[in-house]
């Protein structure tokens, strides 16, 4: 999917919501456990109830890998369901990969060609040759971890390296990578006040912003400091939406939570 198409969807739906499909069988409604594939049954119900309120879904692969081959099959069914039924939706494989070039090429094939995701999250730690194999795919997006939402972000990401915080080095150096127009970046909603400086370095890049909802980040602050002329934001909530209820009406309950965020996003878009 092109970035222009994504921006068009955001304007049309008045939403830059990404719903995280972090599907955990300990948390899904009990009646679904009788289904042949409870993970897919849960995801399908959530997607059908919320697709008009969001522009992206982000399955975090850890939640699927934890169930072995069955989990991976549920991930494959989920991305196929999205691509067949809702092709206007931007899909993110939250896999946080990155390795020597030869290996990164295989990861890129797995997520972009075999599974057919629009984007994948990548750790920048191994540098240029670990990221460029992902960037080589046309109309696919590589979402580089810049400043993450967790406490451990301060262990390395904000440390000074050659006079600049490491996360700023990530932003600046990655701009020199081949096909860098295919880059997006992760910035945690819990780090919203850093967004002004981040926007000075990457004024127009799309940011995936997790951390509203369960982690306590503020949507209003993220928009205040992080929204660009082309919106430039995908704000993710996972647990705060998908586990709104553990009863039969769980999908409807998740749609209500998604609608609350979509309505706040609509207001933020109108402020511009
Ligand atoms: O790359 C991510 O999506 C990510 C980066 C980050 O800095 N913080 C973060 O929480 N995430 C992911 O975003 C999701 C957040 O989930 P909730 O806290 O339940 O909304 C999880 O899948 C995390 O792995």
From TrEMBL:
Orotidine 5'-phosphate decarboxylase domain residues are 16-254
Return one GO MF term.
Answer: orotidine-5'-phosphate decarboxylase activity
Under SMART domains, the record lists: OMPdecase (SM00934)
An annotated GO BP: 'de novo' UMP biosynthetic process
Reactions it catalyzes: orotidine 5'-phosphate + H(+) = UMP + CO2
Presence of keyword Lyase: yes
Fetch the SUPFAM superfamilies from UniProt.
Answer: Ribulose-phoshate binding barrel (SSF51366)
Q: Which UniProt keywords apply?
A: Decarboxylase, Lyase, Pyrimidine biosynthesis
Q: InterPro entries from the entry? A: Aldolase_TIM (IPR013785), OMPdecase_type-2 (IPR011995), OMPdeCOase_dom (IPR001754), RibuloseP-bd_barrel (IPR011060)
Pathway-wise, it operates in: Pyrimidine metabolism; UMP biosynthesis via de novo pathway; UMP from orotate: step 2/2
Q: What is its EC number?
A: 4.1.1.23
One Pfam family recorded for the sequence: OMPdecase
Similarity field: Belongs to the OMP decarboxylase family. Type 2 subfamily.
Name the record gives this protein: Orotidine-5'-phosphate decarboxylase
Higher taxonomy: Bacteria, Pseudomonadati, Bacteroidota, Flavobacteriia, Flavobacteriales
Q: Which domain of life is it from?
A: Bacteria
Name its species: Arenibacter palladensis
